């Protein structure tokens, strides 16, 4: 049990760092920001999804805000992006991989926390997806961009799939660790396949929007 | 009592479906979205106002998130908009009517929930309006549009009027059902008159904004 | 104790009025709004930061929403901006001063409330800054502007500095009133120096964003 918690903490903090880094780098590319803006957006990307989840679950104050390790790791990710933003720009692929890892870890840990606090199955799946995509969505709103999750590629779907695998596995009595690993792997693989083959989720049939 | 609850549930779910449908259709017209984006924005329009209300009232987890019927009805509305978006575009007027119905039902049910949970009169009126316009405002923020409630036509005012009628009637000892029907009718009539005569709320006196 | 509370209430309501006024005026300059939009954005600027703080602290329902005096003062500020927006435009400097006063008072009162409700030091500093800049950030998101706190001048930094002074002084056993005054003065002075000398927080080293 203690070992499992330790593994989850390491994975969760890794996801937090990855999201802070990729979130801050995305923001730098779109808007001219000062140091406060870069670090703020990095922290918001990394911690925002968890805060929304905890509000919905009534698990307040939010765990990621209450625990200084999450704050420190998220701030570090934002600071690294601020200091080495130019250099990191060339590491596009590692950042996509780290972001996909963050997505997978948060989808699974969000759904798990939902189940632990008594949410229904559908709610737990939604909470996993909200945890995974919520922070990036808040960042996109602040920098004036249509959130990527609404328009582009496979981003919410792998998170929903990974959370569904976890919830289904728990329902079938699979122990927590293999269920979590299975959900995270499913999310990660779908996400990376989407990136590699540039797959988009289907758009409305025969419908062209006025502006795009 | 049980019958009243049943009536409210039917009306509330009708409002949820109407908002999910009209919210998703509005989003499709403005931004190119995939299926995840359309359904997400439909659900957010239908459920977002209630979630904000429940956070303000400390009624967590939010009722509309906790009850699978709201989630299912909201997702269905978004899905119908996704599948039949082109066809529904010709049904502009029924959608305006449904949206006005949602506005009226949510203004009244939001104010009522505020009173039941001990909020003051002014707070209950504001909660009614927040429930009614909150979801559409979140949707507009996500698709990069100035929220309609801030700039155009009579939208917040009918919601405030309907909620005020309900709160005043309850204060005068009117039973719940006629008070709710009265408030909803007032909101609906003002909203439809505003649409029909294209009435705008007054702008600042003698003031032209730099950009518009 | 009672006198201290009285002083705080007066200062807090002064900050609320200042933020409602400056927030609504900022909104009027950017977007064409009707009376509902102006008053809504004034109230959101004045009360939004406190609501976010209270959600994070699990102090629900939010104090500024529960207490009618805050609602009334915030609505008055928005209404004054709506009615006299043209005239007030010439009073640019008093508004900057009032806004800086609101920033200072909210940074200190936000951090203080965090400490009182048991938040850690780093969390209390962040809560002070969130209280101070949160409302203006929500307003900027609604009117489709990149939040000023992310991009321009010294705005978050004075709030963080003021909150840090308060938290450090409390940790050293300084009584509440001088600690609060000291924090507010530090925030106010840094903010006004930033305005006067047009100082920006540093941007990322050697990095030009694609768009700006």
TrEMBL record, chains A, B, C:
Membrane topology of the entry: Multi-pass membrane protein
Subcellular location(s) per record: Cell membrane
Superkingdom of origin: Bacteria
GO CC term (a single one): plasma membrane
One family name in Pfam for this protein: Gly_transporter
Location (main, coarse): membrane
UniProt entry tagged with the keyword Cell membrane: yes
Transmembrane regions: 6-28, 35-56, 68-84, 91-112, 124-142, 154-173, 179-199
Record key words, sorted: Cell membrane, Membrane, Transmembrane, Transmembrane helix
Similarity section: Belongs to the UPF0126 family.
Protein name: Trimeric intracellular cation channel family protein
